[in-house]
Every structure is written in structure tokens, then in C-alpha cells.
Amino acid sequence: MSRFETAYGRVLDACGAISAFLVFMVTAVFTLNVILRNVFGARMPGDVDLSEYAMLLITAFAAPWLLRKGQHVRIDLMLQKLPRRAGWLCEFFVDTLGFVVSVLMTWYGTRVFFVSIADGTKLVKEFTVPEWWTLWPLPAMFALLAVEFVLRFRRLLGGPRRPRNEGAPV
What we know:
Strand order of the largest sheet: 1-2
Shape: globular
Distance between the termini: 30 Å
Number of domains: 1
Mean pLDDT: 90
Number of strands: 2
Strand content: under 5%
Structural class: mainly alpha
Number of helices: 6
Radius of gyration: 20 Å
């Protein structure tokens, strides 16, 4: 399992790098668009569409990576105040819920993805693109999240019976 977890960690590190690159590209496109508009009186066609699609990709690639690093949105004040065992049980419950939701969203997202391909649905904005181009990241992201929740279970069950210390100040 250790080799799998190491390889999986590399996949998630690549996801984080892709997300960071996309943030950089969106920033560059907006900067270029401001320069074009203010200096030349022109604008980049499709800049809003591209930024919308990029935001979806940024979220899809960053979510499993952030969960792995323990830097996801987390309110752990209550966990730190509970008795250790109760905090650990809360961690277990939340990881279970996260896993179940991730599996359900993977299944549903995959279904919607294939229906979109079969129906040939298109998104008509400044650019016209097949809808499935925007749908593929969702089942992929939730599948990666489901795997990470399984690995979190493994680490939780193998560690001390207390809540994780992911969001606590150092």
C-alpha cells in the first residue's frame, strides 16, 4: 500500500501544479485583457468563457490535492475542544460521509458525462463547445477524492485515537 500511496501522492501533486498553472494563466489572461482594452481599445474574445472553464478545472484539480495536504476548508475548533476519542469519532464520521458523497458524485457525474456525449449537448456562449468538455473534471475529481478518503481512513485507523491537527495553528 505504501508504494501506491506514494504514487498517488505524486498524482495529487501534479493536480496541484496544474491548478496553480491554471490560476497563473487566468491571471495572465485578465492582465492581457486589461492592457489590450486600455492601450488598444480591443478585448480578447472568449476571455470570460475561458476564465469560467478554468475556474472549474482549478477547483477540480485542487480539491483532492488540498484534502491530501490537510489544507481544505476545515473548522476544527470543536474537534480540539472535544475529548480525544470523541474528536476521533467525528473525524471518522466526516471521512465516511466524504467518501460516500464522493462515490455518489463520481457515479452521478459519470452518468451525466456519458449522457451529454450521447445527446451531443453543446454549450453556446462566445465559444460553442460540447458540454462534456466541461463535465469530465467532476467525476475525475470525485473519484480522486474517494481514493483520498480511503487513504485518510487508513491513516486515521493506524494513528492515535484523537482528531487530526490539520487546521490548528502551529
